[in-house]
Amino acid sequence: MPEQPNKLSQFWSELKRRKVFKVIAMYAAAAYVIIELSNNIVTPLNLPEWVPALIIVLLVIGFPFALIFSWIFDVTPEGLKKTKSAKEAESAETAAITAKKRRFKISDGIIIALVVVVCILLYPKLFRKDKFEDIRDEEGRISVAVMPFKNTTGDSLYDWYSNGISSILINGLSLSSEISVIDNQTMVNILENRENLQYASMSAPLVNDLASSIQVKSYIWGDFIATKEKLLINLKLIDTETNQVITADSEETHRDSIIHAVQLLSERIRNYLEIKSYEQDLSREFGEFAITNSPEAYRYYLEGFRYLYSFDISSYDLVEQLLKEAITNDPTFTEAYILLSRFYGWSHVNYGLQLRDRESMQYLDLAAASKEKISLYDQISINQQRAYLEKNQEELIRANEQLVKLRPLSPQHWQFSALDYDHAHQFEKAVIAYEKAIELYKKVGFDRIVRNFIARLGTVYHELGNHEIENELYEEGLKINVPYSIDRIIYSQAVCALSQGDTTKANEHMAKYRSNKETEELEEYWIDYDIGMIHLDAEQYDKAVKIFSDLITTDPREPLIKWRLGFILIDKELDVDEGMELIDQALDIEPDNADFLYTKGLGYYKQGMVQEAFEIINKAWNLRLRYDHDHYLLLQEVKQALN
To answer: What is the pTM of this model?
Structure first.
């Protein structure tokens, strides 16, 4: 005997049969359309400001009635009919099923039409990238007028405040080169042409009409309310065309301090508009924002940010100067401290500048103490930089992943993730991050960085053994018309060809590489060194040994070449004893070189001298400025051997 459905499931089925859910969807869509239309017609039809609110109230009241009627009645081609009971409907269902298949129901057409209208209304709200774009003039400045403020005190003695407040705001906004504001005299002339203008009775439609008549893109309007001793001033920045409020602010003050209060409002609104203008420029390039109330600080920060990520060593002294100026203008500017710490941390490792790790950590501590409450984003950014300085790759990757989740459209964070996955030999994850970084940098036209990361992505595919995609990437990178990273790609093409045994193509690439370096006036000695590195990276060890041996004969004082040859002899166990002799000679010249010490420790480990190996490998790790995956793995292996 079939199991009887419970009452809850019966009720649920009855709701669906009576099309209650369809009615809810139709009512919600129709209500949204009505609300949007009411908001858009209030101003042009000069309707009272309370009309949209009344419509919302009526729609809320009507909702339960719509549910009740959907339960009781059905809308049919023959008109409104009472809904049949479940038994009656079941008996009639078979006979009607063929007709239903043939007939396109009116309700379905209504739903489709409503969905289309809702999508049209929602599209500009969801996909409008820059709400300031529509209020800029032809020169790119934010176009704004300041309207007389509404006197809501009920006392005509305060009418002079209406023009007084707007006049002070105009003067303050005029100080900015990013804002195009209608001057005082022009506004006075416009208002004088309006007959019987009463500031106490000014309405939103009237003010919007004033702004439209002078063809200004946006306007500031507000009111002031008086109490016994104080005055509350409210203002809004409004888009003239859409009537959308862009931002709002208020200030409460004693009546004898009204000028100072309006000056504060003027400064805040000016700072807001300037910073948003700078942010728009920055977001086009990096999708990255910083938080400060000082436009001057933001300007310095923005320039420092751009120079730092241009990866141009000639501008690095300027980066330091700009970021320190940003901090001087706003000592609570957390992001400026973090960026300065990042600059100090990178400068020595990547560009051979003086050791600055101590300064890097100091500015990181200042970042953590810059505000009473640090945002989540800044907390993670500080953790990221600290992990970088402390060579904690696991924590660094975790912080990168958190930042990507917070700001998925920032190419910078995908870039960091890609590089750190790559350094940790997590190549599959590195591919995803590199591809996303390249996609985002392409959108903002950063061709120099795009080519650099295409070259890096190619080497990752090389590690994964996918040489077909690797070569396709190199060809794509060479098509980009910027004079950067060309030699890097040609170098990688030679490595790829050599590793696959295609010596003809490899020789072509190496000849082209040599020609480019000769044009750059690089010494022949160092061009030969690069050719040796190509053979080393392609695992052509015999050829690499021959090249480095010849270079040592040419200049026996160069420690770098001795280390390279010594490393191959030790790591590949071709001649560990000779390799150790070469490393000792290199260490005589540079005794605190982390790479040299690491290689000597590797030699001790190959010789079975585990304790000696641990001591020197650990010393090298402490001297090493940044995480090195092979070094980390060897240190863990030696520790395990000791235990």
So the answer is: 0.62
